[in-house]
Amino acid sequence: MKIAVYGASGYVGHLAARELARRGVDIVLIGRNLERLRETEAAIAPKSVELKLAALDDPRALTEALHGCDSVISCVAPFVFWGEPVIRAAIDAGCHYVDTSGEPVFIKKVFEDFSSVAEQAGVAIVQAATDDCLPSNLLAQLIAKRAGPLERLTVVHGLFDTEITRGTLRSYIEISKGKPYVFKDGEWLASTSEALGAIDLPGEDGLTAIWRSAGPPVISIPRHVETRYLELATNFAPQDNPTALTPEMIEAAPVGPSEEVRLRSRLSVVAIGLAEDGSEVRAHLTAPDLYNLTAVVAVEAAVRLARGDTPSGALAPAQAFDAADFLDALAPWGVKWAVQ
Ligand SMILES: NC(=O)c1ccc[n+]([C@@H]2O[C@H](COP(=O)([O-])OP(=O)(O)OC[C@H]3O[C@@H](n4cnc5c(N)ncnc54)[C@H](OP(=O)(O)O)[C@@H]3O)[C@@H](O)[C@H]2O)c1
Q1: To which H or E segment does residue 140 belong?
Q2: Is residue 278 domain-shared with residue 178, that is, in the same domain?
């Protein structure tokens, strides 16, 4: 099995390479800067890897770099600017595609523009294979399996003691330029980041204040869960104006949290489904070490796609993977989950 990482010089790309090395698969590290790729190579030594230079505006080099790879993990930032070339190259090379995007506008566009061409090419595309978004998509599937068609589904991502990477900051600015979507009666509607009260999140003390938020699960869940209404909330208060950050301010931000800080971060996800008969089904998940979990989730997804037993096309995580089986596979990284 051979798996590529595009953006292997970045914070998440580096962790993904480390996880691939731990699993003993053949690794191809691709990016635009050989020196920076060598830093990732050195960090996972003695594991031998292939290094390939391919700029995003060079489709031929990108496609050639992906030839012979079973799947690729894209960790660029932000995806609205740099995401599509890797998808196009993966389709041309017949290589399955996974990414760590958290940008709903990009995810919606990929479902619209690439579903049929990926299906014709026999390539699977799974986006937002991240710490919070992939698990919440799978939990929603398990709720619907138990409750049937839903009147309402609320998904809450609680992220605690986490510091964000420079790449996440770049993506977050793009996310903040749009309004959060809600899904209502078959349509995605622009909404507001309004306060939604406070909730008891498993693993956390007391109640946590939450706000409606933008995120991939609102785009991906309606593709496999029948619900009249769907919204996402997080414990991050909307920033006053994150788009006012200048490129200089972003460059001055740290690359990402130190390992010590990263290990302290915690995730608590709750999904609450209201069935048509008025009954409620809840699912929750807790986990530590968020950025490493994103890398582990993306690698697990890429390995499963590489085995070749998933459908092709642009797929929500629950359309590609068995929900309970995938979540159980994350147990060694401290992931605990349940449906009540
Ligand atoms: N829960 C979530 O939603 C979640 C969680 C974790 C991460 N993420 C997302 O994952 C992505 C990666 O995050 P990160 O912290 O790893 O970012 P990062 O450290 O900034 O890494 C970005 C990578 O993309 C490459 N890149 C950027 N622009 C490029 C261009 N024009 N041409 C070629 N390569 C380019 C960089 O290459 P160079 O080294 O050559 O600059 C680097 O390897 C972000 O979009 C982040 O939002 C989402």
Answers
A1: helix 133-147
A2: yes
